[in-house]
Amino acid sequence: MIPVLSREDMRAFDADAIRRGVPGLVLMENAGRGATDVLVRELLAGDARGRRVVVLCGTGNNGGDGFVVARHLLLRSARVTAWLVGDEGRMTSDARANRDAYVSMGGVLGAGSLGNAMDGAHAIVDGLFGTGLDRPIDGEIAEFIRFANAVPVPRLALDIPSGLHANRGVVLGEAIRADVTVTFGFQKMGLHTGTGAALAGKVFVVDIGVPQIPRSEPRAFLVTAEDVRARWRPRAADVHKYRAGHVAILAGSPGKIGAARLAAHGALRAGAGAVTIVSWPEVCDALAAQVREIMLAPIDGDLAGRLAGKASIVIGPGLGLDARARDAVVAALEGSSVPCVIDADALGHFMDDPTRLARWGERLVLTPHAGELARLFGVTGEIVEADRFDWANRAARDTGAVVVLKGPRTLVARPEHPILINPTGGPALATAGSGDVLAGVVGALLVEHEPHIAAWMGAWLHGRAGDAWAEAHGDRGLLAHEIADRILAPM
């Protein structure tokens, strides 16, 4: 797991480094030099000589980082113009020291028209604001950002794109749209939302010269392929289908039979030895001619019997929101003791009172997207998206369950634990039925793993399946069953 820090975490880390004798100017120097290396490699074709670069510097320490970049570009024979954006009287001492060092080496400070400075530029460096920004950007600085975004020149952001909230990953008024972001010391939470990832572009972490270990537990971690591989257990030579895990899929209703089939397909591809769709008689009749490897069990008044002996249960895809569906959801939860995935329509039966799920929370994995989580709490999807980390944590705390908040950079929250961020998956996964497949995948993993592990492994495998398809076909046209077919693509 890779630590992902909040701005409070990073401030504490920097303060601790300074207390241990590493001056702030040294941290700034290391950050700027590392960023220059990335800039030259990624945006200047490996050679800065003669290249024209515009560096936008704020008055805080992010601006100081920018002046370090400008100075190192001068040393590499680039043509550099550094703009101080903001009131010179408010510059931090470290930023001022690096501005003066840049000027003493013959560095040019911007004046007059920013448009003229941009003519013929090969790259723009954003050093306007770092992780401390907590108010909307407006006025002249907003105009600078809009202009920089409009120029057809690649942009590199220092630490995070200016205008992006470091924790929530939302835009504060205006924000730089970067092609590359160089973040210092550690990944930052705000880079791992849909908006943050879109604004940041390709992200690189550079060493700032102190141990890469936070002094306290971070608020979040990034899941890696190595984490998934470490949990992947080879099957025993004498395994059979029921020992491999029999998963029940309580799902489907007239007009929504595909959701049940996709969840079952996902469970089988993720390693379930046997899968039974438990659903209404009319659904089972409709599915009888469509499925081969999947067993069918109509709900006939003995739901507990249909679920008996199953290693895990997936509840909800396409199940419906009527009274019989509600009764089935509650009966399944009360009549079993195995781990369960609560997805889609099943979540709808707990709208406005998610705390009712706390009765069974420790064995549940909830898999809402932002809209479904919003309905659970009686708010809007926009409110949830404005602070995904906080809402995922709140949902886990109130329900006692593991919560998988789906979307770009899916989050996995567990009560009283750091959030886990899934880095896999992309726009190709924006296809109907994708979430049903994920529910089935997590259901299969629950056979061998506790809910928290099954959740983050499932999210990673699901996203990687989408990535594997997109590598061959592009970012659109993926069908949900194809996600399931690639669940065990090379990790």
Write out the strand line-up for the largest beta sheet, numbering strands in chain order.
8-1-10-19-18-17-16-15-14-11-12-13
* Proportion in helices: 40-55%
Report the mean per-residue pLDDT as an integer: 94
What spatial form do the alpha-carbon principal axes imply?
elongated
Count of helix runs: 20
- Under CATH, the homologous superfamily of the largest domain reads Ribokinase
For the CA atoms, what is the radius of gyration? 26 Å
Please describe the biggest sheet, giving its number of strands, its sense, and whether it closes into a barrel.
Answer: 12 strands, mixed
How many domains, as an integer? 2
Distance, first to last CA: 16 Å
**Structural class computed from helices and strand pairing:** alpha/beta
CATH class designation of the largest domain = Alpha Beta
The counted number of beta strands is: 19
Approximate strand percentage: 15-25%
CATH architecture of the largest domain: 3-Layer(aba) Sandwich
CATH topology of the largest domain: UDP-N-acetylmuramoyl-L-alanine:D-glutamate ligase
Low-pLDDT runs of 5+ residues are none
